Amino acid sequence: MDRRTVVAFVGEDPSASERVSRAVDAVWGGPRGPELRVFVPTDLDDDRDGEDPLNETCGVVVTAAAATEDRVTERLAALPSNVPVIALVEDATPTTVRALLAADADDIVDAGDWASDPDEIDATHPLAERLAGRLDPDRVRLGGDDVARLSEVLLDAGTTLMSTRTDEVGTKIEWTMENVGEHAELDRIVCYREDDGQFVPAYGWCPDGSEPEPRPFEAFPDPETLSTFGNVARGSLPAGNADGEGDEVQVAESPATVHVPLVVDWELSGIVAFESDDPRAWTDDEVDLYRTLGDLIAHTIARNDRRTALRRQAEQLEQFSAVVSHDLRNPLNVLSGYLSLSEDELAPSRYDAMSGAVDRMETLIDDLLMLARRGETIGETEPVPIAAVAEEAWGSVRAPDATLTIAGEVGRVEADPGRLRQALENLFRNAVDHGGPEVSIEVGPLTANGGVGGMYVADDGPGIPVELADTVFDSGVSSADSSGIGLAIVDRIVEAHEWDIEARNDDGAVFELTFGADATRVAAP
Predict the structure, then answer these.
(1) What is the CB neighbour count within 10 angstroms for residue 412?
(2) What keywords are assigned to this protein (predicted)?
(3) Helix (H, G, I), strand (E, B), or coil: what is residue 108?
């Protein structure tokens, strides 16, 4: 850890920089004291590789002439609140003082009566006294090598967290926190997650044995910045009374902290706090690395939450499938059996109506199971002759007065035969439901690059209503007296095969299936 912080001098007066150097030596002379770095205003231009030369300073001394330049003023305004700015002025008029205060100067030293000999500057000199009172060079900061090592730790952490299983999330996050905390010489890292208005500690690395308590959002420093997804870095605050008056109410020294937001789907879902009990100077590079860790944790938590939600949903769907396949199908089988036994006792018209209702219920149960069992949308695929599968599917559709025509050579496609048949059955039933019992249906090829790139299913019915054009594949959408599930299943099967399907009108409804690149290669007859 690099503990030798920097005092920056900004100005073009060599005499002033020499006197500041002597004042620094007078207060902190020795190898452990702060280093003085001298900058002219042009060194602070915005286009210097995006790096802030004042990034690592524990304090800045600036001449009055330099402090009023725009580029210097902008840099001083961007400094953390715990980095003091001391301005040197030879003519401390009220106008000059107001200008320096407007330029974010925290203190002003009148240099007009300084001794001409820099050697006469000692610890009693006004500038030395101001430096000693304002600057805290013992604050810990990460050096360049420390930042590089911490970057490597986070790179390894990214690989680890991205491959974390659900049962490893907490362990891996806290293991990463420990690595980061030890490399950065922190005292605590705590991840708070939002829960009903409170931020509750979810993961943490606290080698001192402390147990963080839930906190309201307002208890974090600068909640307004956190709410807009900004980082908040604060140095330690000295002990004192909370209200600044009297000695009755005492507060302990607060730790130096960096708080970074956890952002998921553009919402604040938590906060990660990095804390140091030692006085600390947070560099921009260091804070950026902490933000990277926060982003990694947010992504890991969000992915695990989605995984947990999907697992819960899968369990619910499995329960639903069990109810559908057992609790509904069994009574339906009983009803179907008694109906068969009563066939001779019922008038044909009544029997046909009741038998059709039973068949319809069986179809609905099959459709519901298809929608529920998402993981079983398709099985093993093979080159399938489309015309043969279409004929088989047509044989399962009860529409004796309707007709099916295979127009042209539709070839083969790489597909799950059973699921392709089910998709065609649903398209045929959809045509009968909407086009009537005497509808004419045509299946033909879609050509692409000189070969078969897909197929179409068209009918001569009334077509797709304009108001349903964008939702025709949504579950429950239908303009006929049907469940509206059939086309949703078709869309699911098409998507599972990585094909595309579109619906349009052309003297009836037309559904065009475009096969993927792999399927197209085997589409020739």
Answers:
(1) 19
(2) Kinase, Transferase, Two-component regulatory system
(3) strand
Q: How many Cβ atoms sit within 10 Å of the Cβ of residue 478? A: 19
Taking CA atoms, 94 is separated from 61, 69, 163, 483, in Å, by 20, 19, 63, 83
Helices (H), 12-112: 14-28, 64-67, 70-77, 94-102
CB 11 within 8 A of CB 65: yes
Contact 300, 203 (CB under 8 A): no
Q: How far apart are CA 269 and CA 208, in angstroms?
A: 27
CA–CA dist 477, 468 (Å, integer) = 8
Q: Model confidence over 40-97: pLDDT tens digits?
A: 988 887 655 555 677 667 789 999 888 888 888 888 887 767 688 898 888 778 888 8
H helix or E strand, kind and range, residue 384: strand 382-385
CA angle (396, 402, 408) in 5-degree steps: 85
Q: How far apart are CA 6 and CA 10, in angstroms?
A: 13
Token duo for residue 141:
């900061």
- Where does 354-399 show beta strands of DSSP type E? 382-385
Phi-psi label, residue 246: left if phi above 0, alpha if psi -120 to 50, beta otherwise:
left
Question: Scanning the structure block, which residue is given the tokens 């208890």?
Answer: 219
Spatial contact of 490 and 423, defined as CB atoms under 8 Å apart: yes
Does the pTM of the predicted model rise above 0.70? no
